[in-house]
UniProtKB/TrEMBL annotation:
InterPro entries: Cyt_c-like_dom, Cyt_c-like_dom_sf, Cytochrome_c_Peroxidase/MauG, Di-haem_cyt_c_peroxidsae, MauG/Cytc_peroxidase. GO terms for molecular function: cytochrome-c peroxidase activity; electron transfer activity; heme binding; metal ion binding. Its cofactor is heme. Heme c 2 binds at residues 281, 284-285. It comes from the Bacteria. It is found in: Periplasm. One of its GO terms (cellular component) is periplasmic space. Residues 81-192, 266-419 form the Cytochrome c domain. Keywords: Heme, Iron, Metal-binding, Oxidoreductase, Periplasm, Signal. Binds 2 heme groups. It comes from Rhizobium setariae. This is Methylamine utilization protein. Signal peptide: none annotated.
Length: 422
C-alpha cells in the first residue's frame, strides 16, 4: 500500500448551502454502512481492503451525489420555461457571427457534451480543450482557469469570444427579439426598445462594433447587458439538467455483494485499489463526480508553439473583474450568498500553471487529455503522473509514484469502468 490518502477540505466545498449539510449527513450514514458491508466486501473480492479504502471507494458512487445546489445568482435556474428556452438557445447556430456555431457545436450531446478535439473550434480555434458539461452545476468555478463563478456567466464568455461564437451583445438582443420574444418576456419581462439599437455593438468585439457600443448611452448599455445576462441564465437552466450517467462502477459499488454479477472484473477492482491507494488519484479526483473542482499544477507543458498558460493565476483575477460575477449588478444573489467570490484569493503562487481538475466520469471515451489536449491517451496520462516531472511554469504538485506495469494496466481498466451503462 502507498501512503494514506487525505482529501482536502475544498474537495467538498462545492456542495453549497443546504446541499453541504446533506453531504455531511450522507457521509455520516456512509460511515455506518461501511462497517455493515466491509465483511461482505472483503470476502467477495478475495483481497484485503482497509476500511479507509472501502470508505474512499464508496464515496465515489453516483448514489452519494446530493441534489443539485441552488444558484442564488440565477432566479430562473430551475424554471421549466427557462430550461426549454435554454435548450433552444444551446442548439441555435444563429447565436454566432457566421450562423454555423451553437453551444452544441463544441458540446456535442452524443459525445459527453465535448468535441474530441485537442483545442475547441468555433468560428476560429481556441487555446484550450472543450470541457464536458455533465455535473457542472455542482462546481463553484467554471472554465479550466475558473474565471467564471456560475453556469450562466460561463455561457456568456464563448458567445462574444472572437474565436468561439464571435457575436456581440446587441446582435444577441436582436436575435432574442426576432425569434424568442414571447418565451423571453414570459420569464424576464419586456425587452427594451430595439429600434434604436445598432445591429452589432458590444464591449468585447471587433473595432467597429466596439465603437458602436461606446456611442450608446449608459441606459441602453445596461438594458442590453441585462438581456445578455438573461440569455446566459436560460442556457444555464438547461445545462443544470445535464447530469452524469450511471456507470458499471456505480452499479458495482451499490451492490451488497462484491463484485456483483456482470460488473467489475478483477483487473478493474485492482485498478480501483490503485486509484484510492498508492496511485493517489483520489487526492484530486474525489467525490461522486471524481473531481474536487479545484485547481492544480500537474506539470503539463503547452502544445508546441503555444505560449505557457498561467491557468488559475489569470482566471482568479478575471473572475474578480467580471461584471457578470455573483456580486455584479446582473446577479440575482444577495452579497452574503456569494461566499466563494467574497473569499476569493487572487494572489497565490500555487495558482500559477494550475488548472481545474476534470471529472473522470466517461474519461476513457474522450481523448485527448489535459487542458489543451496535450496527451493523446490514458496510458500516457498515467505515465505523466508516475514520472512527476518539473512544471514548465509554477510548481508542480505531483510526486513520483511507484506503479509497475500491472498497476498501470489495472488503473486504466478501472477508468474504463466509468463509462455510461447502455
Amino acid at each position: 500500500m502507498g501512503r494514506p490518502v487525505s482529501i482536502r477540505l475544498h474537495s467538498i466545498l462545492y456542495f453549497r448551502g443546504a446541499a453541504m449539510r446533506k453531504i455531511v449527513l450522507a457521509l455520516s450514514l456512509l460511515a455506518v454502512s461501511i462497517h455493515a458491508h466491509s465483511a461482505d466486501f472483503l470476502m467477495a473480492s478475495g483481497v484485503s481492503w482497509s476500511e479507509e479504502e472501502i470508505a474512499l471507494a464508496r464515496s465515489l458512487s453516483l448514489d452519494a451525489l446530493p441534489p443539485i445546489p441552488e444558484d442564488p445568482s440565477n432566479r430562473v435556474a430551475d424554471d421549466p420555461r427557462a430550461i426549454e428556452l435554454g435548450r433552444a438557445l444551446f442548439h441555435d447556430t444563429r447565436l454566432s457571427s457566421n450562423g454555423k456555431v451553437a453551444c452544441a457545436t463544441c458540446h456535442l450531446p452524443n459525445r459527453q457534451f465535448q468535441d474530441d478535439r485537442p483545442l475547441a473550434h468555433g468560428v476560429g480555434e481556441t487555446s484550450r480543450r472543450t470541457m464536458p458539461i455533465a455535473g457542472m452545476a455542482y462546481s463553484p468555478f467554471l472554465f479550466w482557469d475558473g474565471r467564471k463563478d456560475s453556469l450562466w456567466a460561463q455561457a456568456l464568455g464563448p458567445l462574444e469570444s472572437a474565436v468561439e461564437h464571435g457575436g456581440n451583445r446587441t446582435m444577441f438582443a436582436h436575435l432574442i427579439s426576432a425569434y424568442y420574444r414571447d418565451s423571453y418576456e414570459a420569464l424576464f419581462g419586456a425587452l427594451p426598445d430595439m429600434v434604436s439599437l445598432p445591429a452589432d455593438a458590444g464591449p468585447i468585439a471587433e473595432a467597429k462594433s466596439a465603437s458602436a457600443w461606446q456611442e450608446l448611452d449608459e441606459a441602453d448599455q445596461e438594458s442590453v447587458n441585462a438581456v445578455f445576462a438573461n440569455i446566459g441564465k436560460a442556457i444555464a437552466a438547461y445545462e443544470r439538467t445535464i447530469t452524469p450517467p450511471r456507470t458499471r462502477f456505480d452499479d458495482w459499488i451499490a451492490s451488497p455483494a462484491f463484485p456483483a454479477p456482470g460488473s467489475l472484473n478483477k483487473e478493474e477492482i485492482e485498478g480501483l485499489r490503485v486509484f484510492v491507494g498508492k496511485g493517489r488519484c483520489v487526492t484530486c479526483h474525489n467525490g461522486p463526480l471524481f473531481t474536487d473542482n479545484y485547481f492544480h499544477n500537474t506539470g503539463v507543458s503547452e502544445p508546441k508553439g503555444q505560449a505557457q498558460d498561467r491557468g488559475r493565476a489569470t482566471g482568479a483575477r478575471l473572475l474578480g473583474e467580471d461584471m457578470f460575477n455573483c456580486l455584479g449588478r446582473y446577479s440575482d444573489a444577495e452579497p452574503d450568498q456569494c461566499t466563494e467570490l467574497r473569499f476569493l484569493v487572487t494572489e497565490d503562487r500555487s495558482m500559477i500553471g494550475a488548472f481545474k481538475t476534470p471529472s473522470l466520469r466517461g474519461v476513457a471515451g474522450r481523448p485527448p487529455y489535459m487542458h489543451a489536449g496535450q496527451i493523446e491517451n490514458l496510458s500516457d496520462v498515467v505515465d505523466h503522473y508516475v514520472a512527476a516531472k518539473e512544471a514548465p511554469v509554477g510548481h508542480s504538485e505531483l510526486r513520483a509514484l511507484s506503479l509497475d506495469a500491472q498497476d498501470r494496466a489495472d488503473l486504466i481498466a478501472f477508468l474504463r469502468s466509468l463509462e455510461e451503462v447502455r
